[in-house]
Design brief:
By secondary structure, this protein is of the alpha+beta class. The chain has 14 helices and twelve strands. The strands form three sheets. Strands 9-6-8-7-11-12-10 form a seven-stranded antiparallel β-sheet, sandwiched between helices. The chain has a three-stranded antiparallel β-sheet with strand order 3-2-4.
């Protein structure tokens, strides 16, 4: 597949032949296959299909004076993986022109079920158990209390979400002793044959109940599926109205999942308070693995003053440093760019940064290929006198 193809066009052509790649990042509508590879992206359905590193099996890339050609192989032991070097290289090694990818038959059944948990921590425990069970779900997502309230407020008037909860479900929650200000909403996606989906829904139902959760059917999941590409584009709208809105995401082993959520939210709120402005931060678990999970933080700040960029920088830095302090990574799937690069030595160690710098300088000594990305010195977004800024 040629690397410049946009997500919707690629899927339309694949599905016309009965196939799907299964890769749906938030930016799906306006991003390309080459961009996904260059940024090592993940999609909403990566729990089943894998991220782009799993999907991309081979590629061609134009480099200074030569062309890299990697055949599509299931596995190889040809020294350090050149394919892995290209994945996430953000344009610093060359321009990706085409790629070979895994595709899958379009599933017979696709369904997203919605669940509620008494707390976000209960939802995290359930997701950890889901990923280690016999189920192989397409996605498992759980939102913390603040994001759950955001989802409710964002529901269509005609949906059961528009009034926060149906009266019947609310009564059940109150009877169970739940604090409605702390509830966490989860979406779990199922794909496959009708029998397979029924079997997996049964497994997930048991795990949800074992963690105090409650299933509410596929209505909210259908609404989520319809609106899944909308939220990322709210940022530009909010900027026009004096609201700074952005995201940061990270991954940790399961044992640190609760801690990184608690400390990162606290760090962001403290930074907002110190700037003397109003704001909020919320989070959801977006991707689950055998050993851990990705948590995706959204922050919004009301600041239309001349110091708005400094406010943004202070909150962003607080969040990123919390990731490092809680054994996380600078980014799970949004890449490094310039903003995340000051934390790279904490993430992969100074020796890791040395290896990356040596690779980039060896391939592109003239620094013509997207210089300053990944390996960068200085304050994010502001040039320095360093060789890579």
């Amino acid at each position: 597949i040629q690397a410049g193809v946009f997500g919707p066009d690629m899927e339309e052509q694949l599905q016309a032949r009965g196939w799907t790649m299964g890769h749906h990042p938030d930016s799906f509508v306006w991003s390309t296959l080459g961009g996904w590879i260059a940024t090592r992206s993940s999609g909403m359905q990566s729990d089943k299909y894998g991220d782009i590193a799993d999907i991309c099996r081979g590629l061609r890339m134009v480099m200074p004076g030569q062309i890299l050609s990697l055949r599509p192989l299931p596995s190889t032991s040809s020294g350090p993986s050149v394919r892995e070097m290209v994945l996430g290289s953000e344009g610093r090694l060359g321009i990706i022109t085409s790629a070979w990818v895994n595709v899958h038959r379009i599933p017979e059944v696709r369904e997203i079920q919605a669940y509620f948990f008494p707390t976000y921590e209960d939802g995290l425990k359930a997701c950890e158990q889901i990923v280690s069970s016999d189920a192989s779900v397409m996605m498992a997502r759980v939102s913390d209390a603040i994001e759950t309230q955001y989802i409710m407020a964002n529901g269509k008037r005609s949906s059961k979400l528009s009034s926060l909860l149906s009266k019947g479900i609310e009564k059940i929650m109150l009877a169970k002793g739940w604090d409605l200000e702390q509830i966490a909403m989860a979406f779990v996606g199922f794909e496959g044959s009708a029998n397979h989906v029924t079997y997996e829904k049964g497994l997930i139902g048991k795990i949800v109940r074992a963690n105090g959760g409650l299933g509410v059917g596929k209505g909210p999941g259908t609404l989520y599926d319809q609106k899944k590409y909308d939220t990322p584009y709210i940022r530009d709208f909010m900027l026009d109205h004096g609201m700074i809105c952005d995201v940061s995401e990270t991954s940790t082993p399961w044992r640190y999942a609760v801690e990184i959520h608690t400390r990162t939210v606290a760090a962001a709120l403290k930074a907002i308070e110190e700037r003397g402005v109003r704001g909020t931060v919320f989070c959801h678990l977006s991707h689950s693995y055998h050993s851990g999970a990705c948590q995706y933080f959204t922050f919004a700040i009301a600041d239309d003053s001349d110091g708005a960029m400094d406010t943004y920088d202070a909150v962003k830095r607080a969040i990123q440093q919390s990731f490092m302090d809680c054994r996380g990574t600078v980014s799970h799937h949004h890449g490094v760019g310039e903003e995340h690069s000051p934390w790279m030595d904490q993430d992969i160690s100074p020796a890791g940064v040395f290896i990356q710098r040596t690779l980039f300088e060896g391939v592109d000594p003239g620094r013509n290929l997207n210089p300053g990305k990944i390996v960068h010195e200085g304050r994010p977004g502001i040039s320095s006198n360093s060789r890579d800024a």
